[in-house]
């Protein structure tokens, strides 16, 4: 099993600590997106990086369109890795959709997780008054329609919206390249599973303590969403970063590391 799971999800392990911290990437990304944050924890933790099936350097032959028709397939990826590494009381750092994936994994297997770190989480991207998710349903259907018609053009526009920080175009260029390296069929299915999901009803069931890191100017997960998640997860802490974009681990890695470290050290 070890060989199969670790190869399937391109699992990489580093660090000198006994406690495990696992980093999970968002939609259109891969584990390389953690290169400026994860190494900061290698002195004190066993650091685990991986790619979801269909992303990065994962084994694409293991992709199953039925399994990954919803986020539950990606939750199973996480649980398989937990089983393979025999994880107990691990810290799970999830970016964007991985915040929800990690949340559901922790609900299913609470003994495997000690803390959840949620970077730009969103339980629902669609505006459903009085809830404000940031998008009208028609806007998201338009995004999927553009993906179907012009994948490269869609990737360019989407990457720019996600990254913001226009004065640093290399950030959006990197995300665009990452998205374009993904099979369009897989990207489309992951996008639908992500942007049309609604996990608001699950938040109150979370028993694992959580840190929510929210950027002050984020078009994908607006400030109201971070506040909503904080209000509905029982044992949660919200930290708002004065930053633009949806990927602070790339645009503001030092501050991201600082917030995670402060939270973990305070809970020792």
From TrEMBL:
Q: Which residues form a coiled coil?
A: none
Against Pfam families, the record matches this protein to: Abhydrolase_6
Source organism, top-level taxon? Bacteria
> Could you tell me which residue ranges the AB hydrolase-1 domain spans?
21-258
| Keyword terms | Hydrolase
The keyword Signal belongs to this UniProt entry's keyword annotation = no
GO MF terms on file? hydrolase activity
Residues annotated as transmembrane:
none
Query: What family is this protein classified in?
Result: Belongs to the AB hydrolase superfamily.
Question: By what name is this protein known?
Answer: Alpha/beta hydrolase
Q: Which organism is it from?
A: Niallia taxi
